[in-house]
UniProtKB/TrEMBL annotation, chains A, B:
SUPFAM superfamilies: Homeodomain-like, Tetracyclin repressor-like, C-terminal domain
InterPro entries: BetI_C, Homeodomain-like_sf, HTH-type_TetR-like_transc_reg, HTH_TetR, Tet_transcr_reg_TetR-rel_C_sf
DNA-binding span(s): 33-52
Name of the protein in its database record: TetR/AcrR family transcriptional regulator
Claim: DNA-binding is one of the keywords in the record: yes
Annotated Pfam families: TetR_C_6, TetR_N
Positions of the HTH tetR-type domain: 10-70
Length: 203, 203
């Protein structure tokens, strides 16, 4: 098997990642086949297998690709003040999602549920989660360092924010209800506002 | 098919629910068969099918049974002060879980991931979630009414606490890491402590 980072031409890699995303939207994760992805990419299944031995290899590469996209999005906002970045990040995950985002989240939940039975998924999902934790902790740390936030533990605060967002997103996928909006507002009131409100009084 | 509540003898119902729980621990959800549950119950598969037409019917009844168990547990603690009940509830879901609880959570995550494709699971999971939301909101409301907590919105606060707990539990199942402990401490620091600490000053 070829490693996607070293031997797949960048354009082919981008094409296949885009096709994987669309195939996950259309078919979900459990029912997804290499043929579905080949159809979306308008490539032959054998070409797909030239790059990736198995569906698992391809999906691990796809999860890795999501980190790269996350890094690009993070870089676009790095000049914003920490309080604004954190609020935008929370809103982005909870109230700015559209139907396509939720369809993708549905497929990702299926993949997550498979991770306890599949070390390759588990290990890559752990790398993705570590990227998110570092990203949010960096924002909180920047806010603390700038004196905008109270002197909280950046890592623990990031993990609370992410857990609440993850839980709300999962509830939305499973129950199709208004949890993201409700949890967004409660997270702002109970966690984000108090990070800044008491900054001068508490320090 | 017989309705479990009206025509299954209570002992048989309890036996089958216990067998379903053990079969989920051993096999997970996706791989679970009626035969696995019959084996655990030491009953014939045809007897199981007499009570429940399908695996789906049985698992919906099992989810309903979890609400009954939740009610029993809630009743045991209803004389405790609200602040203590809330802390115990959060600790119960995050730091008091053992290996068996996490194996069960792994099977439940698989079932949750199936809900977007299965209305019967989705509707029953919504009833289970509503029970939990009402339960936690009742505790917060009791704390507000008693003057122990600040004047927060009980429902929104409950949903934030549950989302953070659900997210942390899912991360634990998927990644097998220390998220429940970290999120427990951060939830106490950022959400639970401030519910009480400022009660006198703020009201």
């Amino acid at each position: 098997m070829s490693d996607s980072d070293s031997s797949t031409a960048p354009e082919a890699h981008e094409d296949i990642m885009g096709a994987t995303y669309r195939a996950l939207l259309d078919h979900g994760f459990a029912a997804l086949t290499m043929q579905d992805i080949a159809d979306e990419a308008e490539k032959s299944k054998s070409l797909l297998h030239y790059h990736y031995d198995t569906k698992q290899d391809l999906l691990v590469a796809f999860l890795e690709h999501l980190i790269e996209r996350g890094k690009e999005r993070a870089a676009e906002h790095e000049d914003e003040p920490p309080a604004e970045r954190l609020r935008n990040f929370v809103a982005g995950g909870l109230v700015d999602s559209d139907d396509e985002d939720w369809a993708f989240a549905t497929a990702l939940l299926e993949l997550q549920a498979q991770a306890p039975y599949d070390d390759a998924y588990r290990e890559q999902l752990a790398r993705n989660e570590q990227f998110m934790r570092d990203h949010v902790a960096d924002i909180v740390r920047a806010g603390v360092d700038a004196g905008d936030f109270r002197d909280v533990d950046p890592d623990a605060t990031a993990r609370l924010v992410l857990a609440a967002m993850d839980g709300a997103r999962t509830e939305r996928v499973v129950l199709e209800d208004d949890t993201p909006e409700v949890v967004h507002d409660a997270l702002v009131e109970h966690v984000l506002d108090p990070l800044t409100v008491d900054a001068e009084g508490d320090e």
